[in-house]
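Thread: quick sanity check before group meeting

JM: Hey all, I'm pulling together slides for Thursday and realized we never actually wrote out the predicted structure for the chain we discussed last week. Dropping the sequence here so it's in one place. If anyone has concerns about the input, flag it before I start.
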Amino acid sequence: MQSDSGLLSRVAVVLEPKSAAPRTSAAKKSAHASSVAIDTLKSHQGLVFLALLTITFLAQFYAADLKGIWNDEAVRLTIANGGLATAPFETRQPGPFADVLKAIENFATQPAYLLLVNGILRITHSYSVIPIVTANLLMFLFSAVGIYLLARSLLSPWGVLVSVLLYLWNGFAMVHVLQTREYSLILCLLVWNMAFFYWLFKVGRVGGRRIFWWISLAHFLTTLAAVYATNWAPFFLWPQAVIALLLLRRNRSAALTVCANLGLAGLAWLPWFLKTPKTSALFIIWDRRPPSLSLLLTQFHVGTEHLLVGSKQACLSLLTVYYWMLLIVLVGGVIYFAFGFLRQRFEIQHLVLTTLGFLAFQIAYFFLREPLSTEARYFILYLPYIALLIPLVLSPLVSWVAPSVARRAWLQIGVLLLFAAAGLAQVRNNYRDPYVDHGPDFRVVYHYLISRVAPRDKIMVGLRTNLMALNYYWPSPHQIQLGYGAAPQDHTTTHPRIWTVSYYDEESPSYRRYADYLQTLGYKLAVKRVISSVTIRCFQANPRASEIQQDEQDENGDAGPESDLQHR
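JM (edit): ok, ran it. Output follows.
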């Protein structure tokens, strides 16, 4: 009987209807999914960073040949060549380093980048800018590695991704990478110099004396290279001395080492600075607009737009909203950190002091000398510091807005997607308009002229920078004359056509006198065109009326890339 009752009880248990399993709510599933997504990003942040590096390289390298050079790039290429090229394009060779240092004397620039470009020209045996732009891109990506390492020591894994996106997919950084200018090198040196500065104060806890002295040497070399790369370097280096003095009691050896490195680099740079001639562009007033508060605010608005969203925004868009959001976060964060300056960790103190220090210099230079210091291009120098400051502000802000883990995860994903979308939009804008912070495209001018100028024609330019830009592309430099005036050979040689190429001097008195002089010789103005903001005129010797009419019809019927760019 007992066995039968036990069997029945087991059967009853089996036949008893089971209660429904508790269902997981959709909200919990969603929260779990967001948390899993964030945890996945955190655990694979190294792979994510490598993917971002690869995407950035491909996107910017593909854009390397979207445009030609303009005057600012032409000056640097001419100096890097060792002077103005006089040989035909096929036999042109850059000069040695000594020629570069000699050619640099009358320009307000430092030699580091120009020597680098000279080396690239000699190694590649090519006057293509693509190897130079590729070098710019590699230096920028190397600086991004420094930002990644710095962010890992200061931020959460989510903050690291925000910092890297801010830096890598910055449209204005891409603008500078694609130009033959020194800003990629400057960013690279500033980032790594900052990294070595921070590590000097931390290495005592994780390494021995040998590592300390290797980092000290790296800090000195990057400091020295920075002052030889840009005249702006001292304004980003002096805050290190202030922070070192604040940390003197805590880490005496690191603080004294930093001060010694800065002093030695300054002494090594002093001879170069003292031999700068008074005729150098460093002592010339470039921007003669009278300083005013309204002009200052306008300049800072334009400069911060370029810095944060890549270019000036003409209408309301995602990038406009993104710009104001970042600006509010940045300004608010800097004010917050500044009021609690002494309570912050030394890295935040350095970031804030450097940002406010350069800002103070820009304003002082604006009112005491000229508005040049607030030109948009110089705002790119803030990029390494704001790429770390903005995530430092956003991280606690996100935690405060979304205290629960699930909501915070969704908010973090949303912010990452916003930063990625804004970064890609900036890259797309640079493809649509590669002429941000750019003058006339002399490659377009060259393409226009090369199909029209005959071997016996002569080309006249009034400004040396225009000569440098056109000479870089022109196969026969002897065909170009600098200065509007008659050359000695003009008395024995008759040129069927004389072309004038003008930018910034289209209606200068010297041009007007030369145009009148040509008319006395029987030349008539046959063609006038504006190509990429460059005014091109063709004077023809004793033309028949039918020839002039035909020339004008031919010019008006031209189609090609220059037609789209003539009003830039």
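AS: nice. The first strand starts at residue 458 and ends at 461. The two ends are 104 Å apart (CA to CA).
JM: adding both to the slides.
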